[in-house]
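Provenance

Sequences were taken from public entries as deposited. Structures were produced by running a predictor on each sequence independently, with no templates supplied. The record for peptidoglycan glycosyltransferase from Petrotoga sibirica is shown for reference.
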Amino acid sequence: MAIFFTLFFYIYDYYNNSTSIFLVDPRYNTYLFDNGEQILSTKYKYVKLDEIPPELIYFLLWTEDREFYEHNGINIKAMTRATLTNIKNFSIVQGGSTLTQQLAKTVYLTNERTVKRKIMDIMLAFFLERSYTKEEILEAYMNSVYLGNDISGFGAAARRYYGKELQNISYAEMLVLIGIINGPEVYNPYKYPDRAKNQGMIVLNSLPNNFIIEEKNIVKEELDKMVFYPQTYDERYLNLIYRIKAEEENIGLKGGGYTIKTTFNKNLFDSVTVDSSTSAIVINNKTGEILSFWGGEYDVFYSQQQIGSAIKPFYYLLALENGYYKDTTLPDQPMKFGDWAPENFDKTYRGSVTLEEALIYSINIPSIYLASHIDISPQRSIEVIKNFLSNIVGVQGKYPNDLTLALGTLETSPYEFTKAYSIFPNYGIIPSPYIISEVYDKKGNLIYKRHPNIERKIEDISNDSYAAMNTLMRKVVLEGTGKRANVLDLDLHGKTGTSDLSAWFVGYTGSEVLTSMVKGKDLLSSYTVVPWAREIATSLLYYGRSEEVYVYLSLKSIQESISFFESPIEFVSTGGNVVGYLNSVKLDYPFKELEKNINSALREIQYLYPDVMKEIEQWKKENLTDFFQEPFSFIQNGYDLESYLNSINIDKDVQVQLREIYNQIKYIYPDQAKVIEKFLY
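Predicted structure for peptidoglycan glycosyltransferase:
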């Protein structure tokens, strides 16, 4: 009795500190491209009990646990029979487990066949039967039972083995799935299809005559002819999954059983093939959506390679802002900076060139000269360039402390530099990149939705300077070092870069930024990486995703002197970009004030500019979401929750809503949950 009670309370405590039977293994998520197609084959798909064919339930209970609705978690008769058989064979060769015991083993224990494990699953089954209804236990079992090939549950197995939803599978297909339970590896449909079908036949023959199936011969014929749905996925997709999982951690997603819709475009990804030395990434420069990347996740997001001349547009931009012009003459002759005597790539000197020529043809000496004159001394100039890239634009990497920075000895990743180049088509705005757009729980409820967000806004560069740089980088593609990337009818801008161990092309349209990088020695970007970048650019054009880079009219007067909120008609009539304006100011106002300003401006322009009004309404739908209606969207848009809650009257009804939202977000957004705690009483 002492041993029994010790075991009882030990296992009871173990049970109380364990997870729910409905909690899913964190590995088992379903990942989707942006069009809803699966990235990898399904490992887990939750199916409610009322969505499961009743015939499948009958077949399962007949085969695995005929007295399921009569016992209390343990079937003494079946256990006795199994015990006698095991004693006879001097080993554990037969189980007498009920479905409840099998569920307890799946959720809480391992597959080892030991006396300890058997005692634990018996007692755990006893506790389960007192915590859950029979229907809940059956639903949990059918969604968690292991069916081979890293699949849990009948819903995922139907998708993987037959390419069907569970509701649509045939009797023969049901029987095979049930047969797999007793030996997921022995009856693996991909390795041993004949064994799997034969096991289905054994299950069929065990059924009483006229038990649901009236014509067994028809089902036998179907079993004989059965063909399993092939495993079809590109192993390159695994790199996409690694990146998704990294973002899962960033948004605080825990557990499993989720359906995760991503921003990855399948057609774009499949249209480009790379080798082991190449990496690339494409980001929507308006929304921050990462549309695709190629190569290893590490190479794209974490590796650090010198970027070469791809750095030049950033300090050329600073030069234009400081009073230089595209026609400014720069020296092109041998120079020495301390002990460093740089050379042009072609070993020739032209005497002098214009700023425009120096960038278009990526001439080193005039570029170094320009970089050294951004401020009052070469060292001060390097500090200004370094500060601009690292602190203002936000490029993470390894920076040199000398003038070699002008030739791109900064070491960073394709991902970092793709983000940075967003400032050119966006006139100083960098969107926050993301991959996960929506997350649904196992029952299909939307629990997370990402909206575009601004990561950085460059304040001290004029739109005139951006416009001039856009003109120059368009010429790089039309007639300079990047002309092999030019695609007819595509407004592609960009810059090449070559270092000792890599070659780069970073380009952009009005809607995307793309970076391609090839690693290797003695490379020339024009002949290695640029043609490959053209392949990606062509795919963008083919799938109709690209827009032209916006050209501002009277840039300073429009964007700096006129406020859309103060003079909406004048702002629109002079060519102002309303959506760009709203994106740039949305976090400068408290939520309620922002909403009030937008609605006031709408009333003024609604009859004069109905097309602009539609754009604003769409922006409101995506960005101006009220906290109590869409709390996840409100938080993801970056609004100040505390100021919002301070601005409203919190009565008892609001308290109830706050409590519900608090319970929804406390694990995903613990910082925002702490804000809510201040208003709960």
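The mean pLDDT is 87.
The CA atoms of residues 383 and 401 lie 8 Å apart.
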